[in-house]
């Protein structure tokens, strides 16, 4: 009996559609919550460095002076801690995977120039 | 005994997904003794606990293993929660249980496929892996990760599963259940499978007990040993019963796993039926201070996480004892006396996961 079950399966396999996807030609399956890659809305970032401190694989480097935010894509394990700890909620997880690559992929995001000093002055005056 | 020769098996071998090395002492084609060596994939994850915030470390604990990942993170969380006296909300416990059972299903289906592959039964291998894919789809839809879920945290879980989605998951499981049963029937009745595995690599109940076998390896030898019976997470409320088989050979270890897949489907259905409402996490304040041994039943067997903390945000010591590590002495026992050609199948039946044995 089991022999014939397998024969049935084998025939279905021969005549049916492939069960696999031709990734990357066909995009991978994804869901709303899928963790694909990290993106940042740099306009909202205050360069506090919280994400860098909590990043479990040290993939993020934040430079407060130069106002840059840098991520090493191959170090990042897409755990989502940075998105969780960011006080401005400016890190997001996108559901699609980052394209594959053969060398290190370090992305440097330059933030907008610092807001005018007025605010700071106001604070010091207080 | 001058006609003994030593044949190295591994660390790279077609049936081994991960590097373990065995020196097989042979007399003709028969194995007299096997000397195991591990240490090829040590990653130093335990040491990393001293450098990371204890809450962020959950995600590293999860990456100890690429298959029993979710159970590792839950066990670590259990340890921290006990030290800090955190009461995890029931809904979180139930959802954790559901995800743990999903991990068990996908791990066992992966293993059943690998075993079929080791026997040269390619059709069955593909079939098991196709079923596994259905399980992984539900995992990804609810947690965001296929095998690394990252959805457990100290004090609860990161993501809730909405009730409609829980209903869909149960319906999906109901629809693939006949396929799982069909593949189980093949493992139980097929001549090829029986011929290859019946009476091979026998481990008696006493030997299993003495050598410290755990998980399906112990249950395949008739030891009624399963940490889920202690009722951690929500297992206590689901009427869990361990599955055991008496013969202690490769086929019985295989049947334990194929039966456990169906048992896991039942557990998920019961958990969804009893799913309580309420919050999914408890606020965590302060740092842990103290030590705790947390146990859990992974797809491969009993796993232990020891955590020692001293009131700082970094843990002092984290030690994991994984099921593969404890199953190596029974494996050495099983290998003595079998034919060389049977070694791959026997090695596979303990479901070796060297990545987590060495961390
Ligand atoms: S935690 Fe958020 S605000 Fe702070 S540096 Fe990182 S991205 Fe910017
Ligand atoms: S997702 Fe995790 S690993 Fe990746 S940058 Fe954020 S914290 Fe680091």
TrEMBL record, chain A:
Residues 36-65, 67-96 form the 4Fe-4S ferredoxin-type domain. The keyword 4Fe-4S applies. Keywords: 4Fe-4S, Iron, Iron-sulfur, Metal-binding. Pfam families: Fer4_7. The keyword Transcription regulation does not apply. GO terms for cellular component: membrane. InterPro entries: 4Fe4S_Fe-S-bd (IPR017896), 4Fe4S_Fe_S_CS (IPR017900), NADH_quinone_OxRdtase_chainI (IPR010226). SUPFAM superfamilies: 4Fe-4S ferredoxins. One of its GO terms (molecular function) is oxidoreductase activity, acting on NAD(P)H. This is 4Fe-4S dicluster domain-containing protein.
UniProtKB/TrEMBL annotation, chain B:
Gene3D superfamilies: Cytochrome-c3 Hydrogenase, chain B. GO terms for molecular function: ferredoxin hydrogenase activity; NAD binding; nickel cation binding; oxidoreductase activity, acting on NAD(P)H; quinone binding. PANTHER family: FORMATE HYDROGENLYASE SUBUNIT 5-RELATED, HYDROGENASE-4 COMPONENT G. Ni(2+) binds at residues 65, 68, 353. This is Nickel-dependent hydrogenase large subunit. Keywords: Iron, Magnesium, Metal-binding, NAD, Nickel, Oxidoreductase, Translocase, Transport. Mg(2+) binds at residues 46, 320. Residues 120-283, 287-359 form the NADH-quinone oxidoreductase subunit D domain. The keyword Repeat does not apply. InterPro entries: ComplexI_49kDa-like, NADH_Q_OxRdtase_suD, NADH_UbQ_OxRdtase_49kDa_CS, Ni-dep_hyd_lsu, Ni-dep_hyd_lsu_Ni_BS, NiFe-Hase_large. Belongs to the complex I 49 kDa subunit family. Fe cation binds at residues 68, 356. Pfam families: Complex1_49kDa, NiFeSe_Hases. It comes from the Archaea. Its cofactor is Ni(2+); Fe cation.
